[in-house]
Write a structure and sequence with these properties.
Length: 114
């Protein structure tokens, strides 16, 4: 399970759980709302690492179909993905967010475009 604060950004406050009971206890103890999702256990990996694709699209017409896309990009974790319960707290394996990944010594800022 993955618990995300209802407020905030940049990967702050996100937690992964292998126990529904632990996740519910954490979520109900919070003073503010949160979003809970079932963690995708069999996720697609890129060379063993979790990733996500960010793309903004705007559909301006259905017939003919007209779609505009603005600068899509991919975010990749700096460490190999695992579902080992001892590693669920490791954000470098589970959160693709750049604001999280840039804190890992394996992060290569030279791969970023300007």
């Amino acid at each position: 399970w993955i618990l995300k604060p209802g407020h905030g950004s940049r990967g702050r406050g996100i937690k992964c759980f292998d126990s529904l009971k632990d996740m519910i206890a954490t979520a109900t103890a919070r003073k503010k709302g949160a979003v809970v999702q079932k963690y995708v256990e069999n996720c697609m990996l890129l060379e063993g690492r979790k990733f996500d694709i960010r793309a903004w699209v705007l559909v301006t017409n259905w017939n003919p179909l007209t779609i505009w896309m603005y600068e899509p990009y991919i975010r990749i974790c700096t460490e190999d993905h695992t579902l080992d319960p001892r590693e669920l707290a490791n954000p470098y394996q589970h959160l693709c967010n750049r604001c999280v990944q840039k804190n890992n010594e394996a992060y290569d800022s030279d791969d970023e475009e300007g």
